[in-house]
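Memo to structure team: turn this sequence into structure tokens by end of day. - J.P.
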Amino acid sequence: MFSFGGYEGGFSDPQERIEELKTKLRRWTSGKVLVPLLVVLALVWIGSGIYVVGPGEVGVVMHFGREIAIAQPGLNFRLPWPVQRHEIVDVQRVRSAEIGYRSAVRGGGFNQRVAEEALMLTGDENIVEVQLFVQYIVQDPSQYLFRARDPEATLRAAAEVALRSVVGRNTIDYTMTDGREDVQAQARIYLQKLLDDYQTGLLATAV
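Reply from structure team:
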């Protein structure tokens, strides 16, 4: 038989349960438990600001989204999130872009032509197919991260523009024979100007 007024049938008094919960809450919020817990949480939060920048990399530190420092390779510290955060950029890795073709996938095969990029008009109104290979590095990590929306895509578009411009100023014979190295040099100079104008932070090292 159960009764609503007391302890019969195995149910405890709701008032007793409330008092028990209050006791447990007072125990957890007492200084003996709360203070050490807060100290541990604070140490973990502060420790999250430690980070490592590898060889050939730099760290860009931002304070509430605004760049404030460049961190060099090694162990570094910044104020934890959300006050500060960092981005790591590899400034020594040589990257590459292909214009007018795409390299064959691993395992053999031929390079894939990309006609819409490769076919262009020369100065003497001939159509020529030109393929370009560009090597580049990150020269300015700040610009690379915060100026251009997509630096790699911008480089590809700029390389095609530069190549079409240079080829369009020369004859087909000059472009394909004696002037080949000159065309490459002109394309690299024009490409770098576009990269600087668009503030990509990239440096074309070879074309």
